[in-house]
Design goal:
alpha+beta, flat, 16 strands, 3-stranded antiparallel beta sheet, single chain, 11-stranded mixed beta sheet
């Protein structure tokens, strides 16, 4: 089932959600890898109700038209904490977190922050301890890292669970192109070379390319092109966390956010699709190259048309942290589903210099060994193994054995001495 408008009706109850424990009154938090919320004080669990809701993809163009005619939603929401009585507000891009005074988790309604509501999410699958273990393993595998990095990172890193906003786009593409097809062929050509101090003429096969015009149409359907909708994390890092198990997406429920931070999108819907086009472009280019065929391809022009475009607004889980090393902050993230770790890291210039020096020494040693071998081969005596048919004893110094096929005496041997007749 598909939804035509990207602007669903807001919940009539816009108060922030809290999840108190029915046993002790403390706050419940979602337990990663489960379907329950767990009290961190008494251990009581509340099961999250699973409803058979479908995740509806929305019409991209219709949603943009609706957005153009809709008033801007307020950027911040004032929240009153029932646990300690304090009043505070989240940052403009945050809609789930904790009270800065008592730490009680709270989830604000998404329609209070943005016009487009979250439709689906992947709940956390690995907990904080598993994420910390994965981070330490990642540290151990870093090449050319400073020796004290591991100690600094272990002591300074504090993991925070966060749901990060993403867009997914589905679209049909049709691309008309013009280019050239290159087919290899071989020709024989002559060239001059020096042999034994004399110039000689040789022939060789040379590969050339025969180019011919090419034009055509290629089509491809793209499903769930994933685009980061946050500006808080470096895109080059988050894209290396892929792939995500998007087939396991669940309809959005606030219970999964309790105990975690969550951001709303900062990259607008149309801006996200521009990035999606960049992601799709290399695949379309490969399709064109396959369609042209041959050994080489040139693409002079390509016009891609996008048919129906549909999207989803989803949240994906990451453990995020940073550590300070030598007056610089390095950020890293852990995939909250798979445990994949990616991040920024420092390099040790001393270790890199040592590795380069060692490589040069090994290369120089290898060249020296090869030169020594070549000089030894040239200094060894050379024997003439070519047959000398018809050689007479006189030509061989009066020794018959020396005339056998022109081989050296050392290899053939002398005939046995004649025994005297008694």
């Amino acid at each position: 089932m598909q939804q035509e408008s990207g602007l669903p009706l807001a919940d009539s109850n816009s108060d922030p959600r809290r999840f108190p424990c029915t046993q002790c009154g403390a706050s419940l938090e979602y337990a990663p890898g489960t379907e329950v919320q767990r009290c961190t004080y008494c251990g009581h669990e509340n099961r999250i109700a699973v409803t058979p809701e479908s995740i509806e993809e929305q019409d991209f163009r219709q949603t943009l038209r609706d957005l153009a005619n809709t008033a801007t939603v307020r950027e911040s929401v004032s929240i009153h904490c029932d646990s300690c009585g304090a009043s505070y507000s989240f940052d403009a891009a945050v809609h789930a977190g904790e009270c800065p005074f008592c730490g009680a988790p709270v989830v604000a309604k998404t329609e209070q922050h943005r016009q487009l509501q979250v439709q689906a999410l992947l709940p956390f699958k690995i907990g904080r301890d598993q994420a910390r273990t994965a981070f330490r393993q990642w540290l151990r595998g870093l090449w050319f890292a400073p020796g004290k990095l591991k100690d600094y990172a272990r002591n300074d890193a504090r993991l925070t669970g966060m749901y990060v906003p993403y867009w997914t786009y589905d679209t049909d593409t049709t691309t008309r192109y013009q280019g050239e097809r290159g087919d290899n062929y071989q020709v024989q050509e002559s060239y001059r070379a020096m042999e034994n101090g004399q110039e000689v003429v040789r022939t060789r096969l040379v590969t050339k390319v025969r180019w011919s015009p090419a034009a055509g149409v290629v089509s491809r359907f793209f499903d769930d092109v994933l685009v980061l909708a946050s500006r808080s994390l470096p895109r080059v890092v988050t894209e290396r966390l892929e792939p995500w198990d998007l087939a396991q997406l669940l309809p959005y429920r606030e219970e999964y956010l309790s105990g975690f931070r969550s951001e709303m999108y900062q990259v607008e819907l149309d801006q996200g699709f521009e990035r999606a086009r960049e992601i799709m472009a290399p695949t379309i280019q490969r399709d064109i190259q396959r369609d042209i065929g041959g050994d080489h391809q040139r693409i002079h022009a390509a016009d891609t048309r996008y048919g129906e475009i549909r999207f989803k607004h989803i949240l994906l889980p990451v453990w995020i942290s940073a550590f300070r090393f030598r007056d610089r902050v390095y950020r890293f993230v852990v995939n909250g589903r798979s445990g994949e770790v990616q991040g920024e890291r420092p390099y040790s210039p001393w270790k890199i210099a040592f590795a380069v020096l060692l490589g040069l020494l090994l290369l120089g040693g290898g060249i020296a060994v090869w030169q020594h071998y070549e000089e030894g081969a040239r200094s060894r005596p050379q024997f003439d193994y070519r047959p000398r048919l018809g050689a007479s004893p006189r030509e061989c110094g009066g020794n018959v054995a020396d005339a056998v096929c022109g081989l050296p005496v050392a290899l053939v041997g002398r005939p046995p001495a004649a025994r005297p007749v008694e």
